[in-house]
Amino acid sequence: MLLTIDVGNTNMVFSVFSGEVLKGSFRLTTVAGRTSDELGMDIWNQLSRLGIKPEDLADAIISSVVPPVMAALTDALIRYLGKTPIVVDVDVDPGLPYGVVSNEHLGTDRSVACVAAIHKYGAPLILADMGTATTVDAISREGVYMGGCITAGARISIEALFQKTALLPQVNLALPERVLSGTAVGQIQAGAVLGYIGAMERLITQAREEINEPKATVVATGGLAPVIAAGTDLIDVVDGQLIPDGLRLLYQKYLRERK
Length: 259
Known about the structure:
This protein is α/β, with parallel strands linked by helices. Helix content is 39%, strand content 23%. The protein has 7 helices and 10 strands. The strands form 2 sheets. Strands 3-2-1-4-5 form a 5-stranded mixed beta sheet, with helices on both faces. Strands 8-7-6-9-10 form a 5-stranded mixed beta sheet, sandwiched between helices. It starts with a strand and ends with a helix.
């Protein structure tokens, strides 16, 4: 079995695969100050809950956008599971070709998601990841990365609104039926969710125009993807498994390269 770990700004997502079959998954909060023992025990307990023993795991592979947690996480995997993890961009290159001039590379979460989306849905495509931050990435018909954009996620906007105002309440993000509401909760939901949908539609539409692919498949992932997709016709596919699937594909690439 393979353990894949997607270390994001808010959560670390652990997924266990037997071949291509997902056997189970769990999430731990991403906290930079946690010790390797704390992480190790949490990972051990969660795997035990899934009925998986450390000796059942052949390897572990990590994609991380939070460098401060990597030392403790790596040590936890070595000490508690007996596995030295494979790290994307260190031990294995995602292999995503670039068609945009830049001396920078994508964060590993974005490159891994792009690799998985191309494999699963073909190209051209627009990939929208709606997590703590929102990213939109464009892939050409030839499978080449053509650039992207970054904006704050809807939850960040809601949290900032709550923190900077004295009377407005915190609300859950849900798709409202109307823009106009008579309650503070309804008005915040309308502004945050429907406003976010409007922003996403503009970014998706313009990204399609800029790569000259008006019918490019639009794939959405991230925690808010199902809510946002319910409010727009521009999103073709919602796939919450892109990064775990991408890590599984990169692990297979890693094994081929080592032969």
